[in-house]
Structures
1.
Amino acid sequence: MSKLKSIAELQALLSLAIEKTSFQEEPAELYQPISYVLNLGGKRLRPALVLMATDIYGVDVEKALPQAIGMELFHNFTLMHDDIMDDAPLRRGKTTVHEKWDSNIAILSGDALFVKAYQSIVKADAKYLAALMDLFNQTALEVCEGQQYDMNFETQDAVSMSAYLKMIKYKTAVLLACALQSGALIADASEEDQKHLYDFGIHIGLAFQLMDDILDVYGDQAEVGKQVAGDVLCNKKTCLYIKAYEGANEEQLKVLDYYFAHQDFDAQEKISEVMKVYAELDVRLACRNMMDEHYNSAINHLNSVSVSDDRKLVLVQFTELLMERVN
Amino acid sequence: MSKLKSIAELQALLSLAIEKTSFQEEPAELYQPISYVLNLGGKRLRPALVLMATDIYGVDVEKALPQAIGMELFHNFTLMHDDIMDDAPLRRGKTTVHEKWDSNIAILSGDALFVKAYQSIVKADAKYLAALMDLFNQTALEVCEGQQYDMNFETQDAVSMSAYLKMIKYKTAVLLACALQSGALIADASEEDQKHLYDFGIHIGLAFQLMDDILDVYGDQAEVGKQVAGDVLCNKKTCLYIKAYEGANEEQLKVLDYYFAHQDFDAQEKISEVMKVYAELDVRLACRNMMDEHYNSAINHLNSVSVSDDRKLVLVQFTELLMERVN
């Protein structure tokens, strides 16, 4: 069996493959934004997951390369459209497509990129095609649903924790899960293994998102490179907020309602008042416990995959890499 | 062999099937616009073409029903996104999705509808799947390219006839062609037959679009239900305009440039001055000749399909129905 490839090796392989994927087609207005968004970089984690899930079975990762690239193309399509909907000026520190060109270009280039994702994913042996398509279609639909739930939450008063978990599962976790299962599928893994890898992806995705929520308020911001408590400032309903809202007494509820109703507060005042409520209710620990639960579930599913531990090493490393910011 | 189904029978069958396709899913903000746009009506011509192309081979049209519905879902997805890009207030006399809800809803519902189209199209025997996907992906990409060319033409000074024909081929004709070939593919038609039906679709699509251009200026407007010379008023570069531009002398060019540079003219003055140039250059006849050429090519391809003439009757009727406005 071939030596297991490291994450860095897989990322290098993917960068090369994505560079080689030519989008020098006509009309330029349609394809230039695609090249642009793909060259903004990013860690290529989703396609790396496809290849890892193939590699653990000792199957040549080249076999799953088109599906890996398909996941990356799809992910970038969602970024293009999400950035329009979120009115985001920047993506990975660079101007977003709808700002650099315009919204129409971002809509249509996104659509074309979505088709390109399908074109890449269907480059598989006929025997895998139906299962790959069903998995990907279901995932793509859930990603749309997740984005819609996320937009709905902005104007919703109360968001339940279960609704929140469903949203982050759909918006983030299912694509990681789909990537892993696709790689396993192409490696002819058993259905049980495919399911365990899918669930590993779901729980790792959830744990990662919960960690992201916690770090927004409690992380070392210099390291994270973000505005301190940016989620609080823009009234985003995160795990911390929802936990606080669930447990708040009348007075604490008043504070949350007051500060999350508007944006025009002194930033330091808002953050410190909200963090006071968070501290009183110990929501950091509650969310940390939820995160740990999903992390442990992920590891359990990975442990249940029927390959030797040394073949799982790269997935363990990946998990550590993803979660290292809180460890 | 079963009796050939009439267009009306196929349309009734499709209306029922599309009604039965439930979009009562959550979140409602994502799926209600899909139900809305599908219930605006329309003649269901694209899915009918899929079924016709299956029916001519005596194969049960039920076999191709998911692919037929997929074509209709895809078509409606393109309408949703095109209407945003074209800033269109109305579609089939009703408020467009981005006007009734908002642009974000129209983008995301459109994306979800696109996935629904794929979900329907992949409901085929495994042996057809790769060919169906390749054909559909290529078509979807060309439809995006066609829309981009169309948008480019708005700000382009001169548009060549070949560029124009490519645009209308991609924007309109390829989906008719794809629908026909998909139906034939599922009926196990030979590759030659599939190609002839595809080309029949291309040329019928081109002839139809050229007819539409001619009727905008020279049609019985009461019957067509459109603004007289609406294309001229909004400076649209149609076949008539391009022919005129190609053949114009210096003075005629001045008239065209003058009236197509702005929209703030007296409508009657603009129409009559532009139509004078069109008449001098006899562009109506030139475009009519182009249309006839494509119509004849379509019929030639249909004649080359290896089924008996009586099985082709419904496609002949379809062609007549489509083109009856100028006959």
2.
Amino acid sequence: MPSNFRPVALHHASRLVNHGPTVLVTSAHGGRRNVMAAAWSMPVEFTPPRIAVVIDKKTWTRELVVAAGGFGLCLPGTGLVDVTHAVGQSSGREHDKFSAFGIAAAAGPVLGMPIVESGCAAWLECRLIREPHTEDAYDTCFGEVVAAAADPRVFADGHWSFRDDNAELQTIHHLGGGQFVRPGGVLHAVPPQAGG
Amino acid sequence: MPSNFRPVALHHASRLVNHGPTVLVTSAHGGRRNVMAAAWSMPVEFTPPRIAVVIDKKTWTRELVVAAGGFGLCLPGTGLVDVTHAVGQSSGREHDKFSAFGIAAAAGPVLGMPIVESGCAAWLECRLIREPHTEDAYDTCFGEVVAAAADPRVFADGHWSFRDDNAELQTIHHLGGGQFVRPGGVLHAVPPQAGG
């Protein structure tokens, strides 16, 4: 599988998830691996680049993430909407969801977490920052981004570019119940006149 | 100002921010109030409805939120993109940003936090759940949603509906640098055939 992906500078990593895309959370430990979907993630710091993601304590992913001390976040494009919803509906405890759903993954460059490029817009490899209380009380896991890359057709030089000719690579945003929305028109803020 | 807003059931509150909209964080305490923009928020639990939002410890908003024990999250529509960017660029410590930028606010029903309906799609009023370590280490503040409402032209019965005739009320999603994207086409996930 030839990769078009290019590294994303770590100080631009927060831009990848700034607009709220649904992500695939990947994990691997002891010869096993898993992938699930998560609509609930956000950056929490630019430098060092840190993110938070909600991973339910009952999931197989959570076990693998804690055991491995890391996880991957892969941003599925619109072409993967069905797969994204499906991997969020079943557990990988009994079977390998990558194989079951035909998801091609490679080992991330720093932590060896599974990273998915085919059909994805970008990925981030993250080292888990252990916060047992927050993980327990809110299922919220913090991570530091240690590597990131994106398909330059949709993200380059720290900027997203959503166009008619890259619709398949555009991020998806879960509205709930298997309904997703993709990015629409771009709006450029202009400083308003402050009155009063 | 007549309001079209209707209450949102608390078990549907997470849907309001599930797709990653940029929000206005509002606060009030001791006769003073403030509003800032935040791209970094996410739900962390359906029931009880809880969210996390990143509020920099250096901000005036953070001081007010901790003092009041609560905050508002208001979801600006596309018509407020300039104002949203502007309130994220200046501090309200020296002047009232609601007045400066012509933002009409009322007192929320449970905590009295400022809520903005004109130009917004929805709002949530949240009680701060004190987590001093997480607030300090990651600027991440947890809150429990105690009231929520939405304009039924864009969110009703727990579902978003983005259409040509409600463009002004659609959520905005910050890409960085004052560029926002609004929702585009909706994608309905279909269960794929699991093979292999």
3.
Amino acid sequence: MRHFSVELEELNQSLLQMGGLVEQSIRRAVQSVVEREKEVAKQVMRDEERVNQMQLEIDASTTRLLALNQPVARDLRRLTAILKINTDLERMGDLAVNVAERAISLANRPRLKAMVDIPKMASLTESMLLRSLDAFVKGDADLATSVLTSDNEVDALRDAVYDEMVALMQREPMAVPGAVDLMFVARNLERIADHSTNIAEDVIFLVKGEDVRHHHSHSVPLA
Amino acid sequence: MRHFSVELEELNQSLLQMGGLVEQSIRRAVQSVVEREKEVAKQVMRDEERVNQMQLEIDASTTRLLALNQPVARDLRRLTAILKINTDLERMGDLAVNVAERAISLANRPRLKAMVDIPKMASLTESMLLRSLDAFVKGDADLATSVLTSDNEVDALRDAVYDEMVALMQREPMAVPGAVDLMFVARNLERIADHSTNIAEDVIFLVKGEDVRHHHSHSVPLA
């Protein structure tokens, strides 16, 4: 049997590779919304299959490592964290597909003027994913904590998008379907950010051995 | 040390208790929307704390059982399934709170006529949760499969709600904020149903030892 630490390192690498793919899908999905690029949106949909496949592989490898090595303490916590992060990444991939579907719907409608806060939300959301994975690799609780702070900013941007879209729909009935699409784009980005928050909380638990879930100050999402 | 099977049975009971509490919150949240009952909505918010507490306890017990007993094969699969179902239930509790928040917002606005499909979605969604937990307890793959079928019905009802709300918003600009609330109620119910689907898939994996995730036919959610 190969050494446990080697296999754990390989598992870490697979998780980061999956994270990179998910990050690419989020970036492309937002690009397809902003630039009305249907082909880019379709690429995001095609890549979902690979994300799903990676989730199954990482799940299987983690379960196998648990069964064969019966790790305790820190190694056990690390493996259960990988199981959870894996689930979060796969859901983020699904949410990127949701955004890409809205992009196709939007590209088939007249262009809406308002879209100021979507790119801002998107870049903050991507940064949260990158930081949460980086924090996991480095075991950096401070970096993970910075992700929790950003989540409140993302929630504020989502509220701004909602308010803007409600006002637009009341002013221009023709704009309703497109405005609904943009509201759901904002909602999906906010949920992607929530998954980065989950990852960050797992990292803090891993590093400090304390459970911060349900404790940090967290604006309640209204959706 | 107490016998593993006794502790596993206690863990099952805790999970079912949490499931019952989450089911109650979903039911009350929908009631608060339909009957414009702000007090009922606030009860859902207060109960979230208990759901969160139960999640932490079940997580801790499961991790302890994993560490102390180092189970293999079926017992290991059962424990990793409990970890996942626990996460799903906690998220469903969060989504019930989202619905309750929309209920309060709706109760402060003029009553909207349209709300036909929300109670239908809600009762199907509750039934999916009950069936998925029942399937887990009984190890019943057929019952779990019935949950996957219902998920497609829930998605169809959500589409009907969306279409109705878009038409309403285009007709009556004053109804926009309330219609947005109802769209998000439908969206949250659909996501609650998705979590029951996750649980059902875990049950099928547990019983049949095969991974049905990403394989069953599943209408793609547009949101």
